[in-house]
Amino acid sequence: MPTSERALRQFRELAADSDYADARAERRGDANPGRGADQRAVPRQAGFESFAAPQTRSQQKSGWQRWQMLSLDPRQAEPDPAQFMPLEPAPPPIDFAALDAMREGARTEGYAQGYTQGQTQGYGDGHREGYARGLESARNEAARLQELAATFNHALGRVDEEVAQTLIALALDVARQLVHQAVQADPGVLLPAVRELLAAEPALSGSPCLMLNPDDVALVETHLAGELQAAGWSVRADAAVARGGCVASAASGELDATLSTRWSRVVKALGRDDPWEPPHA
């Protein structure tokens, strides 16, 4: 709004004030005493009586006031912008129930998030710890199984060795019995042993003599008389020599072909030391 229009508007407001018009009339009556008391000045048309501002209560009591024209300077008449700014609305009342509900909701949400996070983290930690413990247990179990396997292999080896030795002993026992039975059933099994002694190298020298069990002398002389004579061997009976065996003795040495001696050679080749005559014999 222009400054002149604003000043005119203020002037009209002042002129419309009835108190201001009455005070103005009284001042005019004091200035013209010749007028009667009943001759009061007729007020002018409202809105054009004066340029003065309304009186305060103290000025109204004294009956006069000093007139002062309003400033027409646009800079001084420029109203304060703060007067035209809208008033800020009053803040709404605080809803404590809503605040409590929000606080409770935040606490519940935080608890749920913490619970979920803790559960996830706890599950991960528990899984890793359980896996580590399970792996350690599996390693210990594997080590124990390896130890048991080694012990089992050792025990199995011992069993195998014991079984093998038992089988060998059984086989030797069977062989011993078969030899005895063969000698009893066929005394001629002695003849190959005698021929082996005759062909042995180096040959015996110095009056070699073949000693036989008395029951075998006739058998050997019947079948090997010519060979013995050609080799220069004589035959002599000796009861110390078991039947089925023989001993060749000479000045150069002695050759033993008894059953016990030949048995010892066989069992030593097998790594054993079983006697010819069994313990229960």
Structure description:
This protein has helices at 3-15, 18-31, 57-62, 74-77, 81-84, 96-185, 190-198, 217-231, 259-269, and strands spanning 209-212, 234-237, 246-250, 253-256. With 281 residues, the chain is of the alpha+beta class. The chain folds into 3 domains: 3-84, no CATH class; 94-185; 186-269, 2-Layer Sandwich (hypothetical protein PF0899 fold). It has a 4-stranded mixed sheet with strand order 2-1-3-4. Strand 1 (209-212), helix 8 and strand 2 form a beta-alpha-beta unit. Helix 7 (190-198) packs parallel to helix 8 (217-231). It starts with a helix and ends in a 12-residue tail after the last helix. Residues 30-52 have low confidence and may be disordered. InterPro entries: Flag_FliH (IPR000563), Flagellar_FliH/T3SS_HrpE (IPR018035), T3SS_Stator/FliH (IPR051472). Belongs to the FliH family. It holds the Pfam family FliH.
Residue share in β-strands: 5-15%
- Number of strand segments: 4
SSE run: HHHHHHHEHEEEH
Q: Percent range for helical residues?
A: 55-70%
Structural class: alpha+beta
